[in-house]
Structure formats: C-alpha cells, structure tokens
Specification:
Elements (H helix, E strand, L loop, with lengths): L15 H9 L6 H11 L9 H9 L2 H12 L11 H14 L6
Length: 104
C-alpha cells in the first residue's frame, strides 16, 4: 500500500485553503463536480455569484472551462435557456478572478 501524499511544507501563517489547494493540485476535478456545476448554471448567469457555484467553478481547469462554456451555450431550450456569448464570457471572467488569473 502506498503512503499518503503529503503536500509540500508550508510556512506558518499559510491559510488552510492554500494547503488544501496544494494537496489537490495534482488531482483532476471529478466529473460529478462538473455535472453539479452544469446543473447550477442551468438557472442562468446569475448563479455565478452563489458560493457553491463559485467553489465548483474554481475546481475546474482551463480545458474543463472550455467544455462548460460550450455546454452552457448549447443548453436544450426545453431544459434551460442557452447562454449568449457575453454570458459565457462572464463565466470565463469569473473563473479567472476566482483562480487569481484576472488580467492586470
């Protein structure tokens, strides 16, 4: 049995969230998280500001973000209103801000 993966040593005063981020940095986002994100985004662009949506959005990588953007723009109109290009762009902007990758 393999020993558990231990994150690199961190300095005192580093936030618990940073520790968790380091620990999970090598793990892909589970498909269930992506599907939960998609489910919440069916309610519209206004759900971007909800804590659960933000947490899930932060968990995805750039390739997964592209897939989510494609999917929200192609929602079945009988289930959810397809997002406009501007709404998908807002999703990307929020992802960048949440991941600390906002353009400066």
């Amino acid at each position: 049995m393999n020993a558990p993966v231990i994150p690199p040593a961190v300095s005192a005063g580093t936030a618990a969230e940073r520790c968790q981020e380091l620990f999970n940095s090598e793990r892909p986002t589970p498909q269930a998280t992506i599907e939960a994100l998609m489910y919440s985004l069916r309610r519209g662009v206004g759900d971007i500001d909800k804590p659960d949506t933000q947490r899930r959005l932060t968990a995805i990588d750039q390739d997964q973000l592209k897939e989510v953007c494609r999917r929200v723009q192609n929602f079945n109109p009988h289930i959810a209103t397809p997002w406009s290009r501007e709404e998908a762009t807002a999703l990307v902007s929020n992802w960048r801000i949440l991941r600390g990758k906002a353009y400066r």
